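>> Question from a student workshop board

For tomorrow's exercise we were told to take the sequence and the ligand below, predict the bound structure, and bring the output to class. My setup keeps failing. Could a helper post the expected result so I can at least see what it should look like? The ligand is EPU.
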Amino acid sequence: MEKLVITGKTPLKGEVTISGAKNAAVAILPATLLINGKCRIENLPNISDVRSYCDILKEIGAKIEWVSENEITIDTTKIDSNKIPIDTTRKFRASYYLLGALLGRCKSAQIGVPGGCNLGPRPIDQHIKSFEALGATVDVSNGNITAKTKKLKGTSIYMDIVSVGATINAMLAAVLADGITTIDNAAKEPHIVDVANFLNTMGADIRGAGTDIIKVRGVKELKGGSTYSVVPDQIEAGTFMIAAIASKGDVIIKNCITKHLESIIAKIEEVGGNVDANGDHLRVWYTKRTHKANIKTLPYPGFPTDLQAQMGVLLSISEGTSYINESIWESRFQYTQELIKMGAKITVQGKSAVFEGINELVAAPVYASDLRAGAALIIAGIIAKGKTEIYNLNHIDRGYENIEEKFRKLGAKIERVEE
Ligand code: EPU
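>> Workshop helper replied:
Here is what the output should look like for this input. Compare the format with yours to find the bug.
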Protein backbone atom coordinates (compact mmCIF):
# COMPACT_ATOMS: atom_id res chain seq x y z
CA MET A 1 0.00 0.00 0.00
CA GLU A 2 1.28 3.47 -0.87
CA LYS A 3 1.12 6.42 1.50
CA LEU A 4 2.24 10.04 1.47
CA VAL A 5 4.53 11.11 4.27
CA ILE A 6 4.64 14.85 4.85
CA THR A 7 6.91 16.66 7.29
CA GLY A 8 5.00 19.80 8.07
CA LYS A 9 5.43 23.45 8.87
CA THR A 10 6.93 24.47 5.52
CA PRO A 11 5.74 27.71 3.91
CA LEU A 12 5.15 27.07 0.20
CA LYS A 13 7.20 29.33 -2.06
CA GLY A 14 7.73 29.50 -5.83
CA GLU A 15 5.69 28.79 -8.95
CA VAL A 16 3.25 26.05 -9.87
CA THR A 17 1.66 25.36 -13.25
CA ILE A 18 -1.95 24.22 -13.30
CA SER A 19 -2.98 21.22 -15.45
CA GLY A 20 -6.03 20.83 -17.66
CA ALA A 21 -9.37 20.48 -15.85
CA LYS A 22 -10.29 16.95 -14.77
CA ASN A 23 -14.03 17.56 -14.96
CA ALA A 24 -13.75 19.01 -18.49
CA ALA A 25 -11.43 16.22 -19.68
CA VAL A 26 -13.71 13.42 -18.47
CA ALA A 27 -16.56 14.91 -20.52
CA ILE A 28 -14.54 15.80 -23.62
CA LEU A 29 -13.19 12.24 -23.95
CA PRO A 30 -16.65 10.64 -24.30
CA ALA A 31 -17.72 13.60 -26.46
CA THR A 32 -15.22 12.36 -29.08
CA LEU A 33 -17.65 9.46 -29.67
CA LEU A 34 -19.89 11.94 -31.52
CA ILE A 35 -17.15 12.71 -34.06
CA ASN A 36 -16.79 10.87 -37.29
CA GLY A 37 -13.01 11.15 -37.55
CA LYS A 38 -9.85 11.96 -35.67
CA CYS A 39 -9.05 14.88 -33.37
CA ARG A 40 -6.22 16.02 -31.13
CA ILE A 41 -6.66 17.00 -27.49
CA GLU A 42 -4.00 19.08 -25.72
CA ASN A 43 -3.55 20.11 -22.07
CA LEU A 44 -5.14 16.81 -21.04
CA PRO A 45 -4.42 16.13 -17.35
CA ASN A 46 -2.47 12.89 -16.99
CA ILE A 47 -4.56 11.52 -14.10
CA SER A 48 -6.00 8.07 -13.49
CA ASP A 49 -9.60 9.08 -14.39
CA VAL A 50 -8.38 10.23 -17.82
CA ARG A 51 -6.28 7.10 -18.37
CA SER A 52 -9.27 4.93 -17.36
CA TYR A 53 -11.49 6.82 -19.81
CA CYS A 54 -8.98 6.28 -22.60
CA ASP A 55 -8.96 2.53 -21.79
CA ILE A 56 -12.77 2.37 -22.04
CA LEU A 57 -12.78 4.17 -25.38
CA LYS A 58 -10.05 1.86 -26.71
CA GLU A 59 -12.07 -1.19 -25.63
CA ILE A 60 -14.97 -0.10 -27.83
CA GLY A 61 -12.78 0.57 -30.86
CA ALA A 62 -11.28 4.07 -30.52
CA LYS A 63 -7.66 4.49 -31.63
CA ILE A 64 -5.78 6.60 -29.09
CA GLU A 65 -2.16 7.70 -29.26
CA TRP A 66 -0.40 9.62 -26.52
CA VAL A 67 1.61 12.21 -28.46
CA SER A 68 3.17 13.55 -25.26
CA GLU A 69 2.51 13.45 -21.52
CA ASN A 70 -0.57 15.71 -21.93
CA GLU A 71 -1.65 15.28 -25.52
CA ILE A 72 -3.52 12.58 -27.40
CA THR A 73 -4.91 11.95 -30.84
CA ILE A 74 -8.14 10.01 -30.87
CA ASP A 75 -9.89 8.41 -33.80
CA THR A 76 -13.45 7.26 -33.11
CA THR A 77 -14.32 6.27 -36.69
CA LYS A 78 -14.50 2.55 -35.90
CA ILE A 79 -16.48 2.26 -32.69
CA ASP A 80 -17.81 -1.30 -32.53
CA SER A 81 -19.84 -1.44 -29.30
CA ASN A 82 -22.41 0.65 -27.47
CA LYS A 83 -22.40 -1.45 -24.29
CA ILE A 84 -20.16 -0.66 -21.35
CA PRO A 85 -20.22 -3.17 -18.46
CA ILE A 86 -20.64 -2.20 -14.81
CA ASP A 87 -17.11 -3.41 -13.91
CA THR A 88 -15.88 -0.50 -16.00
CA THR A 89 -18.44 2.21 -15.24
CA ARG A 90 -18.36 1.75 -11.46
CA LYS A 91 -14.71 2.93 -11.38
CA PHE A 92 -15.72 6.57 -11.65
CA ARG A 93 -18.67 8.90 -11.81
CA ALA A 94 -18.04 10.51 -15.17
CA SER A 95 -18.77 7.21 -16.92
CA TYR A 96 -22.38 8.52 -17.08
CA TYR A 97 -21.34 10.68 -20.08
CA LEU A 98 -20.99 7.47 -22.12
CA LEU A 99 -24.78 7.22 -22.07
CA GLY A 100 -25.40 10.64 -23.65
CA ALA A 101 -22.55 10.28 -26.13
CA LEU A 102 -23.37 6.72 -27.25
CA LEU A 103 -27.08 7.51 -27.41
CA GLY A 104 -26.25 10.47 -29.65
CA ARG A 105 -23.98 8.38 -31.86
CA CYS A 106 -25.73 4.97 -31.99
CA LYS A 107 -29.32 5.87 -30.92
CA SER A 108 -29.02 3.17 -28.29
CA ALA A 109 -26.63 2.53 -25.42
CA GLN A 110 -26.26 0.42 -22.34
CA ILE A 111 -23.91 1.28 -19.50
CA GLY A 112 -23.41 -0.07 -16.00
CA VAL A 113 -24.46 2.23 -13.16
CA PRO A 114 -21.71 4.82 -12.56
CA GLY A 115 -19.52 4.74 -9.43
CA GLY A 116 -17.28 7.52 -8.11
CA CYS A 117 -16.46 9.21 -4.80
CA ASN A 118 -18.80 8.43 -1.92
CA LEU A 119 -20.35 11.85 -1.35
CA GLY A 120 -23.81 10.59 -0.36
CA PRO A 121 -26.70 9.86 -2.77
CA ARG A 122 -25.86 10.77 -6.37
CA PRO A 123 -29.12 10.50 -8.35
CA ILE A 124 -29.21 10.77 -12.16
CA ASP A 125 -32.93 11.50 -12.59
CA GLN A 126 -32.20 14.76 -14.47
CA HIS A 127 -29.98 12.90 -16.97
CA ILE A 128 -32.73 10.34 -17.57
CA LYS A 129 -35.39 13.03 -17.85
CA SER A 130 -33.30 14.79 -20.51
CA PHE A 131 -32.82 11.64 -22.62
CA GLU A 132 -36.55 10.90 -22.38
CA ALA A 133 -37.44 14.46 -23.41
CA LEU A 134 -35.24 13.96 -26.49
CA GLY A 135 -37.32 10.89 -27.42
CA ALA A 136 -35.41 7.99 -25.83
CA THR A 137 -36.83 5.30 -23.58
CA VAL A 138 -34.67 4.67 -20.57
CA ASP A 139 -34.63 1.58 -18.38
CA VAL A 140 -32.62 1.07 -15.19
CA SER A 141 -32.41 -2.56 -14.11
CA ASN A 142 -29.87 -5.22 -13.02
CA GLY A 143 -27.20 -2.58 -12.49
CA ASN A 144 -27.49 -1.29 -16.08
CA ILE A 145 -28.96 1.82 -17.65
CA THR A 146 -30.28 1.31 -21.14
CA ALA A 147 -31.41 4.16 -23.39
CA LYS A 148 -32.73 3.74 -26.91
CA THR A 149 -34.68 5.55 -29.58
CA LYS A 150 -35.39 5.49 -33.29
CA LYS A 151 -34.61 9.17 -33.57
CA LEU A 152 -33.52 11.92 -31.17
CA LYS A 153 -35.63 15.03 -31.59
CA GLY A 154 -34.84 18.56 -30.39
CA THR A 155 -36.95 19.64 -27.42
CA SER A 156 -37.17 21.88 -24.32
CA ILE A 157 -35.57 20.53 -21.18
CA TYR A 158 -36.04 22.26 -17.83
CA MET A 159 -33.56 21.04 -15.22
CA ASP A 160 -35.25 20.81 -11.79
CA ILE A 161 -31.81 20.97 -10.20
CA VAL A 162 -28.70 22.75 -11.43
CA SER A 163 -26.59 19.74 -12.43
CA VAL A 164 -23.20 19.74 -14.14
CA GLY A 165 -23.49 16.13 -15.29
CA ALA A 166 -27.09 16.35 -16.53
CA THR A 167 -26.40 19.60 -18.43
CA ILE A 168 -23.41 18.05 -20.23
CA ASN A 169 -25.23 14.77 -20.89
CA ALA A 170 -28.20 16.64 -22.37
CA MET A 171 -25.81 18.60 -24.65
CA LEU A 172 -24.09 15.38 -25.75
CA ALA A 173 -27.39 13.69 -26.62
CA ALA A 174 -28.75 16.80 -28.40
CA VAL A 175 -25.77 17.61 -30.65
CA LEU A 176 -26.79 15.20 -33.43
CA ALA A 177 -30.56 15.30 -32.75
CA ASP A 178 -33.07 16.67 -35.25
CA GLY A 179 -33.91 20.32 -34.52
CA ILE A 180 -33.24 22.66 -31.62
CA THR A 181 -32.89 21.64 -27.97
CA THR A 182 -33.16 24.23 -25.20
CA ILE A 183 -31.68 23.40 -21.82
CA ASP A 184 -33.14 25.69 -19.17
CA ASN A 185 -31.70 26.12 -15.65
CA ALA A 186 -28.43 24.76 -17.01
CA ALA A 187 -25.25 24.56 -14.91
CA LYS A 188 -22.70 27.28 -15.73
CA GLU A 189 -19.37 25.79 -14.60
CA PRO A 190 -16.31 26.57 -16.76
CA HIS A 191 -16.16 22.92 -17.82
CA ILE A 192 -19.70 23.18 -19.30
CA VAL A 193 -18.41 25.99 -21.52
CA ASP A 194 -15.31 23.96 -22.33
CA VAL A 195 -17.28 20.90 -23.48
CA ALA A 196 -19.51 23.16 -25.62
CA ASN A 197 -16.42 24.84 -27.10
CA PHE A 198 -14.90 21.44 -27.87
CA LEU A 199 -18.08 20.23 -29.60
CA ASN A 200 -18.41 23.52 -31.53
CA THR A 201 -14.78 23.23 -32.68
CA MET A 202 -15.71 19.83 -34.12
CA GLY A 203 -18.79 21.24 -35.94
CA ALA A 204 -21.61 21.37 -33.36
CA ASP A 205 -23.89 24.40 -32.96
CA ILE A 206 -24.22 25.14 -29.24
CA ARG A 207 -24.93 28.64 -27.92
CA GLY A 208 -25.34 30.07 -24.45
CA ALA A 209 -23.05 27.67 -22.54
CA GLY A 210 -22.02 29.48 -19.36
CA THR A 211 -25.52 30.98 -18.96
CA ASP A 212 -28.79 29.50 -17.59
CA ILE A 213 -30.09 28.69 -21.07
CA ILE A 214 -28.19 26.60 -23.58
CA LYS A 215 -29.44 26.17 -27.15
CA VAL A 216 -28.24 23.21 -29.16
CA ARG A 217 -29.10 23.24 -32.86
CA GLY A 218 -28.72 19.65 -34.05
CA VAL A 219 -26.24 19.06 -36.90
CA LYS A 220 -25.88 16.10 -39.28
CA GLU A 221 -22.36 15.16 -38.19
CA LEU A 222 -19.27 16.29 -36.31
CA LYS A 223 -16.12 16.15 -38.35
CA GLY A 224 -12.72 15.60 -36.81
CA GLY A 225 -9.48 17.16 -38.02
CA SER A 226 -9.24 19.81 -35.28
CA THR A 227 -7.13 20.33 -32.19
CA TYR A 228 -8.59 21.37 -28.84
CA SER A 229 -6.87 22.44 -25.63
CA VAL A 230 -8.61 21.62 -22.32
CA VAL A 231 -9.37 24.59 -20.01
CA PRO A 232 -7.11 24.95 -16.91
CA ASP A 233 -8.39 23.29 -13.75
CA GLN A 234 -10.15 25.83 -11.56
CA ILE A 235 -10.22 23.43 -8.59
CA GLU A 236 -6.52 22.55 -8.80
CA ALA A 237 -5.71 26.28 -8.93
CA GLY A 238 -7.95 26.90 -5.90
CA THR A 239 -6.29 24.03 -4.02
CA PHE A 240 -2.84 25.62 -4.48
CA MET A 241 -4.21 29.08 -3.58
CA ILE A 242 -5.56 27.79 -0.27
CA ALA A 243 -2.35 25.80 0.38
CA ALA A 244 -0.27 28.96 -0.20
CA ILE A 245 -2.16 30.93 2.46
CA ALA A 246 -2.59 28.07 4.95
CA SER A 247 1.18 27.35 4.85
CA LYS A 248 2.05 31.07 5.30
CA GLY A 249 3.65 31.02 1.87
CA ASP A 250 3.99 33.06 -1.32
CA VAL A 251 3.08 31.24 -4.54
CA ILE A 252 2.64 32.19 -8.18
CA ILE A 253 -0.01 30.05 -9.84
CA LYS A 254 0.44 29.84 -13.61
CA ASN A 255 -1.84 28.64 -16.43
CA CYS A 256 -5.17 29.47 -14.83
CA ILE A 257 -8.13 31.62 -15.83
CA THR A 258 -8.47 34.07 -12.95
CA LYS A 259 -12.05 34.94 -13.98
CA HIS A 260 -13.01 31.36 -13.00
CA LEU A 261 -11.50 31.86 -9.55
CA GLU A 262 -13.48 34.92 -8.41
CA SER A 263 -15.38 33.22 -5.57
CA ILE A 264 -12.14 31.70 -4.26
CA ILE A 265 -10.18 34.93 -4.54
CA ALA A 266 -12.98 36.72 -2.64
CA LYS A 267 -12.91 34.15 0.22
CA ILE A 268 -9.12 34.18 0.50
CA GLU A 269 -9.16 37.98 0.71
CA GLU A 270 -12.03 37.87 3.20
CA VAL A 271 -9.98 35.74 5.63
CA GLY A 272 -7.01 38.10 5.31
CA GLY A 273 -4.90 36.51 2.53
CA ASN A 274 -3.48 38.50 -0.38
CA VAL A 275 -4.18 37.82 -4.05
CA ASP A 276 -2.92 39.59 -7.14
CA ALA A 277 -4.74 38.27 -10.23
CA ASN A 278 -3.29 38.86 -13.68
CA GLY A 279 -5.37 37.16 -16.37
CA ASP A 280 -3.66 33.79 -16.75
CA HIS A 281 -1.71 33.72 -13.49
CA LEU A 282 -1.96 34.93 -9.95
CA ARG A 283 0.16 35.48 -6.86
CA VAL A 284 -1.19 34.42 -3.48
CA TRP A 285 0.72 35.37 -0.33
CA TYR A 286 0.44 35.45 3.44
CA THR A 287 1.14 38.45 5.67
CA LYS A 288 -0.95 37.93 8.83
CA ARG A 289 -2.96 35.25 10.64
CA THR A 290 -6.16 34.45 8.78
CA HIS A 291 -9.51 34.87 10.49
CA LYS A 292 -13.00 33.35 10.45
CA ALA A 293 -15.39 33.26 7.49
CA ASN A 294 -18.72 31.71 6.60
CA ILE A 295 -19.08 29.63 3.46
CA LYS A 296 -22.01 28.11 1.62
CA THR A 297 -21.15 25.88 -1.33
CA LEU A 298 -23.17 26.62 -4.45
CA PRO A 299 -23.15 25.90 -8.18
CA TYR A 300 -20.84 28.19 -10.23
CA PRO A 301 -20.28 31.13 -9.85
CA GLY A 302 -20.78 30.36 -6.12
CA PHE A 303 -18.10 28.86 -3.90
CA PRO A 304 -17.41 25.34 -5.28
CA THR A 305 -18.12 22.23 -3.21
CA ASP A 306 -14.90 20.80 -4.68
CA LEU A 307 -12.88 23.33 -2.62
CA GLN A 308 -14.92 23.03 0.58
CA ALA A 309 -12.58 20.54 2.29
CA GLN A 310 -9.42 22.49 1.39
CA MET A 311 -11.01 25.67 2.77
CA GLY A 312 -12.06 23.72 5.88
CA VAL A 313 -8.37 23.09 6.62
CA LEU A 314 -7.61 26.81 6.40
CA LEU A 315 -10.58 27.73 8.63
CA SER A 316 -9.54 25.11 11.21
CA ILE A 317 -6.41 27.23 11.95
CA SER A 318 -7.97 30.67 11.35
CA GLU A 319 -8.81 32.93 14.29
CA GLY A 320 -12.44 32.80 15.46
CA THR A 321 -15.43 30.58 14.71
CA SER A 322 -16.25 29.78 11.09
CA TYR A 323 -19.28 28.06 9.58
CA ILE A 324 -19.52 25.99 6.41
CA ASN A 325 -22.81 24.96 4.87
CA GLU A 326 -22.45 22.22 2.23
CA SER A 327 -25.44 22.52 -0.07
CA ILE A 328 -24.44 20.10 -2.85
CA TRP A 329 -23.27 16.78 -1.35
CA GLU A 330 -24.56 15.09 1.80
CA SER A 331 -21.35 13.33 2.86
CA ARG A 332 -18.68 15.89 2.17
CA PHE A 333 -17.58 16.45 5.74
CA GLN A 334 -15.85 13.07 6.15
CA TYR A 335 -12.45 14.83 6.10
CA THR A 336 -13.34 16.66 9.31
CA GLN A 337 -12.98 13.37 11.26
CA GLU A 338 -9.37 13.18 10.03
CA LEU A 339 -8.70 16.84 10.88
CA ILE A 340 -10.08 16.21 14.36
CA LYS A 341 -7.39 13.50 14.73
CA MET A 342 -4.90 16.29 14.00
CA GLY A 343 -6.31 18.47 16.77
CA ALA A 344 -8.91 20.52 14.85
CA LYS A 345 -12.06 21.60 16.72
CA ILE A 346 -14.89 20.91 14.32
CA THR A 347 -18.51 19.99 14.98
CA VAL A 348 -20.59 18.65 12.11
CA GLN A 349 -24.37 18.64 12.14
CA GLY A 350 -25.95 17.40 8.93
CA LYS A 351 -24.99 19.73 6.12
CA SER A 352 -23.26 22.28 8.38
CA ALA A 353 -19.96 22.36 10.24
CA VAL A 354 -18.60 24.74 12.87
CA PHE A 355 -14.83 25.35 12.97
CA GLU A 356 -13.32 26.78 16.18
CA GLY A 357 -9.96 28.09 14.96
CA ILE A 358 -6.93 26.60 16.76
CA ASN A 359 -3.27 27.69 16.54
CA GLU A 360 -1.84 24.63 14.84
CA LEU A 361 -2.62 21.13 13.60
CA VAL A 362 -0.51 18.21 14.80
CA ALA A 363 0.50 15.29 12.55
CA ALA A 364 -1.46 12.00 12.59
CA PRO A 365 -2.10 9.04 10.27
CA VAL A 366 -5.13 10.04 8.17
CA TYR A 367 -7.28 8.52 5.41
CA ALA A 368 -8.56 10.26 2.27
CA SER A 369 -12.29 9.51 1.97
CA ASP A 370 -12.57 11.10 -1.48
CA LEU A 371 -10.55 13.11 -3.99
CA ARG A 372 -10.94 16.60 -2.51
CA ALA A 373 -10.68 15.27 1.06
CA GLY A 374 -7.31 13.86 -0.03
CA ALA A 375 -6.14 17.25 -1.33
CA ALA A 376 -7.29 18.86 1.92
CA LEU A 377 -5.30 16.35 3.99
CA ILE A 378 -2.16 17.14 1.98
CA ILE A 379 -2.60 20.82 2.89
CA ALA A 380 -3.18 19.78 6.51
CA GLY A 381 0.03 17.73 6.46
CA ILE A 382 2.04 20.62 5.02
CA ILE A 383 0.93 23.00 7.79
CA ALA A 384 0.91 20.54 10.71
CA LYS A 385 3.62 20.03 13.31
CA GLY A 386 5.33 16.65 12.78
CA LYS A 387 5.05 13.86 10.19
CA THR A 388 1.61 13.23 8.71
CA GLU A 389 0.87 9.97 6.88
CA ILE A 390 -1.91 9.97 4.30
CA TYR A 391 -3.53 6.74 3.06
CA ASN A 392 -6.02 5.91 0.25
CA LEU A 393 -3.99 7.71 -2.41
CA ASN A 394 -6.06 6.19 -5.24
CA HIS A 395 -8.65 8.91 -4.59
CA ILE A 396 -6.06 11.69 -4.97
CA ASP A 397 -4.46 10.18 -8.09
CA ARG A 398 -7.85 10.14 -9.81
CA GLY A 399 -7.88 13.91 -10.09
CA TYR A 400 -4.53 15.63 -9.40
CA GLU A 401 -1.62 15.34 -11.81
CA ASN A 402 1.83 14.86 -10.18
CA ILE A 403 0.50 16.35 -6.97
CA GLU A 404 3.41 15.54 -4.70
CA GLU A 405 5.93 16.69 -7.31
CA LYS A 406 4.12 20.02 -7.66
CA PHE A 407 4.04 20.53 -3.87
CA ARG A 408 7.68 19.40 -3.56
CA LYS A 409 8.77 22.05 -6.07
CA LEU A 410 7.11 24.63 -3.79
CA GLY A 411 9.25 23.41 -0.89
CA ALA A 412 6.92 20.90 0.76
CA LYS A 413 8.63 17.89 2.36
CA ILE A 414 6.42 15.22 0.84
CA GLU A 415 7.30 11.65 -0.18
CA ARG A 416 5.28 8.78 -1.58
CA VAL A 417 6.38 5.55 0.04
CA GLU A 418 5.37 1.91 -0.28
CA GLU A 419 4.39 0.45 3.07
N1 EPU B 1 -28.57 15.84 -8.75
C1 EPU B 1 -29.84 15.30 -8.75
N2 EPU B 1 -30.24 14.66 -9.90
C2 EPU B 1 -29.46 14.53 -10.99
C3 EPU B 1 -28.16 15.08 -10.97
C4 EPU B 1 -27.74 15.73 -9.83
O1 EPU B 1 -30.57 15.39 -7.78
O2 EPU B 1 -29.91 13.92 -11.97
C5 EPU B 1 -28.11 16.58 -7.56
C6 EPU B 1 -26.90 15.91 -6.88
O3 EPU B 1 -27.31 14.92 -5.97
C7 EPU B 1 -26.21 17.09 -6.23
C8 EPU B 1 -26.50 18.26 -7.19
O4 EPU B 1 -27.61 17.84 -7.97
O5 EPU B 1 -26.81 17.38 -5.01
C9 EPU B 1 -25.37 18.64 -8.12
O6 EPU B 1 -24.88 17.47 -8.78
P1 EPU B 1 -24.16 17.54 -10.21
O7 EPU B 1 -24.98 16.72 -11.15
O8 EPU B 1 -23.87 18.96 -10.55
O9 EPU B 1 -22.82 16.77 -9.90
P2 EPU B 1 -22.05 15.78 -10.85
O10 EPU B 1 -22.20 16.17 -12.26
O11 EPU B 1 -22.34 14.37 -10.47
C10 EPU B 1 -19.87 17.20 -10.92
C11 EPU B 1 -18.42 16.96 -10.61
C12 EPU B 1 -18.23 16.92 -9.11
C13 EPU B 1 -18.74 18.21 -8.48
C14 EPU B 1 -20.19 18.47 -8.90
C15 EPU B 1 -20.71 19.81 -8.42
C16 EPU B 1 -17.72 15.68 -12.52
C17 EPU B 1 -17.28 14.37 -13.07
N3 EPU B 1 -18.01 15.71 -11.22
O12 EPU B 1 -20.56 16.09 -10.38
O13 EPU B 1 -16.84 16.83 -8.90
O14 EPU B 1 -18.67 18.12 -7.08
O15 EPU B 1 -20.29 18.44 -10.34
O16 EPU B 1 -19.93 20.84 -8.91
O17 EPU B 1 -17.77 16.68 -13.24
C18 EPU B 1 -14.85 16.28 -7.83
O18 EPU B 1 -14.26 16.69 -8.83
O19 EPU B 1 -14.27 15.99 -6.75
C19 EPU B 1 -16.30 16.09 -7.89
C20 EPU B 1 -16.98 15.36 -7.03
